[in-house]
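Z., the sequence and structure:
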Amino acid sequence: MNENISKRNRLLGQRVIKGLESRNMTAEYAENKEEALEKALAFIPEGSVVGMGGCMSAYEIGLVDALKEGNYDFIDRDKEADKRTAMLKTYDADFFISSANAITEDGVMVNIDGNSNRVSAIAQGPKKVLFIIGMNKVCNDSDAAMKRARSVAAPINALRVGVSTPCVEKGSCFDCKSPDTICCQFLITRFSRHKDRIHVILVNDDLGF
């Protein structure tokens, strides 16, 4: 990555970290995907029960493969015959892995979900939640974060999962009520009631959508 972009990301990342810490969360900054993976594995003790939703950022830094191959009880919902059982097991996990569709410069995170298993686990259930967030998802404020989540992340995720919605056909949000919509639940995480339950690793890279 261009050094000027990296320098800007480091400076902005520190601002985001301060914002998260003011909201009863913890955070750290990783210079690249490899460092992000090291920090994530250092945060999750071996033997932990770990679940996740559809987190492309975790795949991109190699975390999912590391959890599957390492000494962890990884809840792999893709291998479960009954996905509902896997999702319910996740709510009692030691760690839940996620990303954010967008995060503000002062540490507010926005997530949109279709099945709602991801946003519900972020809000309540697992003992710890670990966010892996690329600096491409940092927005100026909550309005900008919501616009990014709806007009950038949601259409790309809709394309990824293969649903038939107006955003798949046109590339932007139409505030639809399609039976296939993935924009069913919106979660704004502005504070953690339980101190340090949520930990964020900001990554100096473009990750996810």
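Residues 142-161 form the longest helix (20 residues). The chain has eight helices and ten strands.

Let me know what you think.
H.
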